[in-house]
TrEMBL record:
InterPro entries per record: C-type_lectin-like/link_sf, CTDL_fold, Hyaluronan_bind_Proteoglycan, Ig-like_dom, Ig-like_dom_sf, Ig-like_fold, Ig_sub, Ig_V-set
Major localisation: secreted
Pfam families to which the protein is assigned, alphabetical: V-set (PF07686), Xlink (PF00193)
Source organism (scientific name): Characodon lateralis
Disulfide bonds: 204-225, 303-324
Protein name: Hyaluronan and proteoglycan link protein 1
Designated gene of the protein: HAPLN1_1
Length: 353
């Protein structure tokens, strides 16, 4: 056995010598394996999703767990960013390092660290807006150590399909964004549409979503809506050209701080008369999103068709009854009548100061 081992070692030495002769420029390399004892910095969130409403305040959780063997540091950096709906980029929200703190863009003056302890990186957000909905990343950097956690901010609200006076399938993506904003709403996300579908939403017209896809929810399969023999679900047209493709849109809105009401008036009104009547009452003619929010979130119910700001005529029903949406609770749509027709009342909205 010993002579065999000696022979093997001599053979290996000769082989290495031959390699040096054949490849004089070949550099010798060495593999070094580094074994770590695990991360010395962890960032965690007690909740993966936080739910609030427009106008409310919320705390996005982010707690730091730091190895006690790490030397004390006064340069720990905490950074909060918001992920865009397509996850392709991040929007700066808040950065803190020691006494230096800064908030960005629409978050300026509305965000700060909870700071219950040195290991608390939770972010407090005030006066929540519709645009605040989404996913947020908490990143902590401490010397060579770093870690992140993602928290979702969800809003209580309602999704509604929308198309303007021009008719169906007339909105490119950017027109759709503006159409929702004009009605006190934003373009809905897929998650919001999915929640609405789970709640019974059934709509057979395709609409834009915030990620640039075009989809529509079906609870009762039927011929014109993907086929009668298909399963219920959200039909997906995929991502579409935001400039050239034209569809309807699914909008999302949440609670509002003002008062939505039907104006008691001695006579029916044209559209222009309706606008002036609300103004005379110290209000503005209500928007479609405000009606949907009042209907869904405040259970508003009124069996009177009335003008809205986009010159459509609608009325909200929570208690189905004869002549008032007898089969389902819904916001009933009477179309876009001639603005000169003196056939309808008006819904107004008064902001609380």
């Amino acid at each position: 056995m010993i002579p065999l081992l000696i022979y093997a070692l001599v053979s290996l030495s000769v082989a290495e010598t031959n390699l040096d002769i054949l490849y004089p420029k070949l550099e010798h390399s060495r593999t070094i394996y580094v074994i770590e004892n695990g991360p010395k910095l962890n960032v965690t969130a007690e909740q993966g999703k936080v739910v609030t409403r427009r106008g409310g305040n919320v705390t996005l959780p982010c707690k730091i767990q730091r190895d006690q063997q790490l030397p004390p540091s006064n340069k720990m950096r905490i950074k909060w960013t918001k992920l865009t709906s397509d996850y392709l980029r991040e929007v700066d929200v808040f950065v803190a390092m020691g006494y230096h703190k800064r908030s960005y863009g629409s978050f300026h003056g509305r965000v700060h660290l909870q700071g219950s302890s040195l290991m608390d990186a939770s972010l407090v957000m005030t006066d929540i807006t519709l645009d605040d909905y989404g996913r947020y990343k908490c990143e902590v950097i401490d010397g060579l150590e770093d870690d992140t956690v993602v928290v979702s901010l969800d809003l209580e609200g309602v999704v509604f399909p929308y198309f303007p006076r021009l008719g169906r399938y007339n909105l490119n993506f950017y027109d759709a964004e503006q159409a929702c904003r004009d009605q006190d709403a934003v373009v809905a996300s897929f998650d919001q549409l999915h929640d609405a579908w789970q709640g019974g939403m059934d709509w057979c017209n395709a609409g834009w979503l915030s990620d640039g896809s075009v989809q529509y929810p079906i609870t009762t399969p039927r011929g014109p809506c993907g086929g009668k023999n298909t399963v219920p679900g959200i039909r997906n047209y995929g991502l579409r050209d935001k400039d050239k493709s034209h569809y309807d849109v699914f909008c999302f809105t949440s609670f509002h701080k003002g008062d939505f009401y039907y104006l008691i008036h001695p006579s029916k009104l044209t559209y222009d008369e309706a606008v002036r009547a609300c103004q005379k009452d110290g209000a503005q003619i209500a928007k479609v999103g405000q009606m949907f929010a009042a209907w869904k979130l405040n259970k508003y119910d009124r069996c009177d068709a009335g003008w809205l700001a986009d010159a459509s005529v609608r009325y909200p029903i929570n208690h189905p009854r004869r002549r008032c949406s007898p089969t389902e609770a819904a916001v009933r749509f009477n179309g876009f009548p001639d603005k000169k027709h003196k056939l309808y009342g008006v819904y107004c909205y008064k902001e609380n100061i």
